[in-house]
Write a structure and sequence with these properties.
By secondary structure, this protein is mostly helical. The protein has two domains: 110 residues, no CATH class; 28 residues, no CATH class. 58% of the residues lie in helices and 7% in strands. A two-stranded antiparallel ribbon has the order 1-2. A hairpin with a 6-residue loop joins strand 1 and strand 2. Helix 3 packs antiparallel against helix 4, helix 5 packs antiparallel against helix 6 and helix 6 packs across helix 7. The chain is elongated, with a radius of gyration of 21 Å. It starts with a helix and ends in an 11-residue tail after the last strand.
Length: 139
């Protein structure tokens, strides 16, 4: 591309990049990726998931504030996790506070526990992540 256009300053290159890559299709892909990505405490690490979502929202809406981005990402967590993070933080929370709260809640509370059928009678037992091989009966 440089051979075709020669030497130019950064603002010219920036406008060329925006013209080539910032089209409706790429925006559609980013929106779909944001909407379909839901935090899975077994597969995703909170830090990487949160920052990836933040990058996606920043690419879609460059003028949006950090507190608004954090609120949109917390709504993607849903349920108990969103409520617990909001209860721990003071409004408006920084990105670092939200990530720290998310990691703390996922690693130290029952949100990470899975309930699986382990006996023929259909009794539920609680497993903490994949770390424990021994079942803890509910009680």
């Amino acid at each position: 591309m440089r051979q075709d256009h020669g030497k130019h300053d950064w603002p010219w290159w920036k406008s060329e990049i925006i013209t080539k890559w910032a089209n409706n299709f790429s925006r559609f892909e980013i929106e779909n990726a944001f909407e379909s990505s839901i935090l899975n405490s077994e597969k995703d690490k909170p830090l990487t998931w949160f920052l990836k979502q933040k990058d996606r929202l920043s690419a879609l809406h460059p003028d949006i504030s950090d507190s608004r981005i954090n609120m949109k990402i917390l709504k993607k967590c849903g349920g108990e996790l969103e409520h617990d993070i909001k209860c721990r933080g003071v409004e408006p929370c920084s990105t670092e506070d939200d990530i720290n709260s998310m990691e703390d809640i996922i690693t130290r509370t029952a949100i990470r526990m899975e309930f699986k059928m382990v006996s023929k009678t259909g009794a539920l037992c609680t497993f903490v992540g994949k770390d424990y091989a021994q079942a803890i009966p509910p009680g």
